[in-house]
Amino acid sequence: MTTKAPISWNAGEELPSITLPPVTRLDLIKYAGASGDYNPIHTIDEEAARAGLPGVIAHGMLTMAVMGRLFSPYLEHGFIKGFQTRFTGMVFVGDVLTVGGKVLGAESTDQGDLYSFDVFARNQKGETVASGQVEFLVFRD
Amino acid sequence: MWQSLVGRRSRPVVNWVERGAVRRFAEAIGDPNPLYLDEEAAKKSRYGRLIAPPTFPQTFDYGTIEGLCLPDSGLIHGEQRYDYVRPLFVGEEITCYRVFQDMYEKRGRRGRLTFLVFSRVGEDSGGKTLFTTRDVIIVTETVMKEWKG
């Protein structure tokens, strides 16, 4: 018996991108509390200045989590199996991030169809602040 | 200084995927997915229960590697990888530890960079691996000098 996958993508297809409201200090305080990462360069201006930064910077892991949101609509049908990110730029308060992704290809596995994606996060100047790859496994129903 | 510690691991720590912690994390990353938050919706899903967002393992305690001291500020998070066997379930117990995998140096535009590579592991109560990570931390020459002071 053949079973049909509930969702499928074609190579080159783009995921709907997400543009976030400007990053606020409160966003960073909330993420610090929720994640337990209290490194003060993310929340306290004086500490950021001491580290040679013009202002507090967002947690890289917050940017990665936001890239993960691209796959949130599909969690009924599968899950992120692999998620790799390189942090290439800093995110400051006031920055407007857009995250997006594109299908690289797919392979059939025992568990289901494994899709690979390029993902990115860019700021309002078009600079890439993080990029990486996601492998998303779609279960066969 | 760190080279001799490569291969060392922390003593495992038991963590729980707490419902309130998942809710706060989902809110902080702006992702109110019903599968993370809504018990009823989650019951009807294929998992039959609430799950945690993919990067939620950031919240766990992985223990400390004995003898390993790092600068307390100025570390750069260069790269992160997660590999999962399945999503994590709210309410489950996960045993976590970290391993100091590797250390190498590169010469960059602004001097010598030291790369520290860790992996973190989460296992279910039966000892089966649920996820692994690869974490690359970069220490710049400036930070290193200031730290050794």
UniProtKB/TrEMBL annotation, chain A:
Sections of the chain in a coiled coil: none
Family annotation (InterPro entries): Fatty_acid_synthase, HotDog_dom_sf, MaoC-like_dom
Pfam families associated with the record: MaoC_dehydratas
Recorded GO CC terms: fatty acid synthase complex
GO biological process: fatty acid biosynthetic process
Boundaries of every MaoC-like domain copy: 22-111
GO MF assignments: fatty acid synthase activity
Protein's UniProt name: Acyl dehydratase
Organism of provenance: Planifilum fulgidum
UniProtKB/TrEMBL annotation, chain B:
Domain FAS1-like dehydratase: 4-132
InterPro entries xrefs: FAS1-like_DH_region (IPR039569), HadA-like (IPR016709), HotDog_dom_sf (IPR029069)
Gene3D superfamilies xrefs: Hotdog Thioesterase
CDD domains reported in the protein's UniProt record: R_hydratase_like
Pfam families reported for this sequence: FAS1_DH_region
Annotated protein name in UniProt: N-terminal half of MaoC dehydratase
Record organism: Planifilum fulgidum
Lineage per the UniProt record: Bacteria, Bacillati, Bacillota, Bacilli, Bacillales
